Amino acid sequence: MTFAKPALSLSDQRLKFESRGLVMTDAARVERYLGAIGYYRLSAYTRPFQQDFATHTFHSGVTFDDVLNLYIFDRRLRLILLDALERVEVALRTRLNDLMCQRTGDTHWYTDRANFDDRYDHARLLAEVRSHKDDFVTSYQAKYAAPADIPAWMAMQAISFGAAQKVLLNLKRREQQAVCQTFGMDRYMVTWVYALVILRNHCAHHARTWNRTFHVNLPLNGAGPASLRGAITPANHNILDGYVLVLDTFMQHVSPGSQWWGRLQHLVQEYHDSTPHAFHQADVQRRAAHLLRGGGP
After folding, report:
1. Domain locations in the chain?
2. With contact defined as beta carbons under 8 Å apart, do 27 and 14 qualify?
3. pTM score, two decimals?
4. Which of 40, 143, 176, 236 could form a disulfide with 171 if both were Cys (CB 3.0 to 4.6 A apart)?
């Protein structure tokens, strides 16, 4: 098959939505939003309102504002998630470095290949650190002739969340276990952190987060602390409902006084109550079962 879809003008994009049954009352306003958001980006938020995925036709009575409100809800959701994800990421960098400095007695432990699994792409870690040009790196280089590499507490601030997860994944088993225990967790935490890296990347790059199936499945079989035992199921192990349970478990250790869970719960409840469509309320209920039942994990 050869791709043959044409690029459409704003008015044609609007007409395409209308032809599929989307109700709109102000054509100019719709086109302004299409010009600011984009047809393709916004169309991802239409799927929960479609009655036929093959023809993309909408349920009766669905309006452009229904779609737009889901888009705005998702944007607000990402900001709340990022508030918690930032704290987990920073805590991981800090605890990873603190423990390894103490265990090895080496301020530059990350440069020693012997601290990692043989299969780890250690050279890639060093390349990422050495390519960093932030002020604290150039200041170190200007002040010290040796070692050439920055100390580990700087290096852990220079790498991405994903790179920090790979450092954790590839530590020797005993050290990896010890880092996990600083969060009150076992080695299942490595997969959990990977899932949070995926979630963080979606949020940071403004990608749709709500109505999404993630490609990293959270571990089942009772993995997790007792408070979460049985909460991660085949029904939620790859959707946001499961991911936020994991995120909140981290937050209970990292920032137990945070009100992020309450703000998240309030946002989802507000959106659930504001939609006029019973079929969509049911979808929100399914995707946020733990949030809408009125309690935490």
Report:
1. 16-62, 70-292
2. yes
3. 0.92
4. 176
Average pLDDT for residues 58-70, to the nearest whole number?
97
**In the block, residue with structure tokens 């079929």:** 279
Show the tokens assigned to 205: 């790059």
Please report, for residues 89, 180, 242, 297, the alpha-carbon distance to residue 289 in angstroms, rounded to integers and kept in the order given: 26, 28, 9, 11
Q: What is the pLDDT of residues 102-117, one digit of tens each?
A: 999 999 999 999 999 9
Exposure b/e, 123-140, CB count within 10 A at least 16 = b: eebeebbeeeeeeebeee
pLDDT the model gives residue 228: 76
More confident call, 186 vs 32:
32
Torsion angle (degrees, nearest 10) of CA 37, 39, 40, 46: 100
Residues ≥6 apart with Cβ < 8 Å to 206: 75, 78
At residue 143, the 3 state secondary structure works out as helix
**DSSP H stretches of helix in the chain:** 10-19, 27-37, 39-43, 64-104, 122-130, 135-143, 152-158, 161-170, 173-181, 189-204, 240-254, 260-274, 278-287, 289-292
Q: What is the C-alpha to C-alpha distance for residues 172 and 293, in angstroms, rounded to an integer?
A: 41
Task: Name the average pLDDT for the chain.
Answer: 93
